[in-house]
Design brief:
342 residues; alpha/beta; Rossmann fold; 2 domains; five-stranded parallel β-sheet
Length: 342
């Protein structure tokens, strides 16, 4: 019966009329899987007044977009979205189904997997397929990030995974790309719902958002103590960067959790990432390896961080950082107080 299942699907998460970035990233990853398996890539778009977004989904790599546009889907609720997704899955039978590892994506994926009696790999950081066996190879850090586990779903379909934002890369949109839009209906009314959305309160408090930072200076336990870590703050302030830290740094109380980069923190993709006093454990690397330029400073020449670094400096960060700070301050003076990262 598994031979009936064909195609790669991506759940398209929409918020306030715009497609979430992780969905566009998954279309890029899904495109590669679909081409290897020689099957179509489809976007699954649910919501109210969202049909207009279908062409954008196609421009980012989808061959087809399945749309259910219904007022009852205006706001995300597990019950309504699950019913819509299950209807599509049972009708069209995809072999692979990807979701963003967002609060809504993880909630929906787990509910759908339970109802369809299939497997789900959570917080995936790498995706591939075994072409001969048509198996999704969903990899994620395991055992505290000490190993990478590749998880297979051999006997059930669809094969499902949630994927962390910022670990995949979206394709460049092509407005001339052609695809098909399949509109479906959902026989569900507001009075059928067991839960009601009374009010949505948007949080206005400004928070640190490392995921959007263009330059990040991230420090590890190699700085010695909280006083040594102050050099990270000084360097970041000098070059106009955001500050990040490893799990060890956060657990030591040198930084709040919102500044943590890695498996249990933020996944970041800045233009420039300074990894200072960081050994390069898997749980940290999965959160920053897609940065455009990685500069590492570590006194251990065999540190794993150098394997992913674009440039590496072998030496004591406590001696090197003051010299870098001085050099950048002089550069800012020469350039009138500005540093360009273009």
């Amino acid at each position: 019966m598994m031979e009936e299942y064909r195609g790669v699907w991506v759940f398209i998460e929409e918020n306030d009329g715009a497609i979430e970035g992780v969905s566009l990233e998954l279309l890029g990853a899904g495109r590669k899987l679909a081409e290897k398996l020689e099957v179509p890539l489809s976007g699954i778009l649910l919501g109210h007044e969202v049909t207009k977004l279908a062409k954008e989904v196609i421009s980012y790599g989808a061959d087809k977009v399945y749309v259910i546009d219904n007022p009852v889907l205006k706001d995300y609720r597990t019950e309504s979205y699950m019913k819509g997704v299950i209807k599509l899955a049972e009708t069209y039978k995809p072999e692979i189904f990807l979701y963003g590892a967002t609060p809504n994506g993880k909630d929906l994926a787990s509910a759908v997997a339970t109802d369809l009696s299939t497997g789900l790999t959570a917080d995936t950081t790498m995706l591939d397929v075994d072409i001969d066996k048509r198996l999704l190879e969903a990899s994620r850090p395991a055992f505290g990030g000490n190993i990478m586990a590749t998880i297979l779903c051999k006997k059930h379909r669809p094969q499902m995974a949630t994927v962390r934002p910022k670990v995949m890369k979206a394709l460049e949109p092509d407005s001339n790309r052609q695809g098909s839009i399949i509109e479906e209906t959902l026989n569900l009314k507001e009075e059928d719902m067991r839960t009601k959305v009374l009010k949505i309160v948007k949080e206005l408090t400004k928070k640190t958002n490392l995921a959007e930072a263009h330059v990040i200076v991230c420090g590890g336990k190699g700085l010695g103590d909280i006083h040594g870590f102050q050099l990270i703050h000084e360097f970041a302030d000098t070059i106009g960067a955001s500050v990040g830290g490893t799990r060890d740094v956060v657990e030591a109380g040198w930084l709040p959790h919102e500044f943590q980069v890695g498996q249990t923190g933020e996944t970041v993709t800045p233009k420039i990432y300074f990894a200072i006093g960081i050994s390069g454990a898997i749980q940290h690397v999965v959160g920053m390896k897609n940065s455009e330029l990685i500069i590492a400073i570590n006194k251990d020449p065999g540190a794993p961080i150098f394997e992913v670094a674009t440039y590496g400096i072998v030496g004591d960060a406590l001696e090197i950082l003051p010299k870098l700070i001085q050099q950048f301050k002089e550069m800012k003076t020469e350039k009138g107080g500005e540093i360009s990262y273009a």
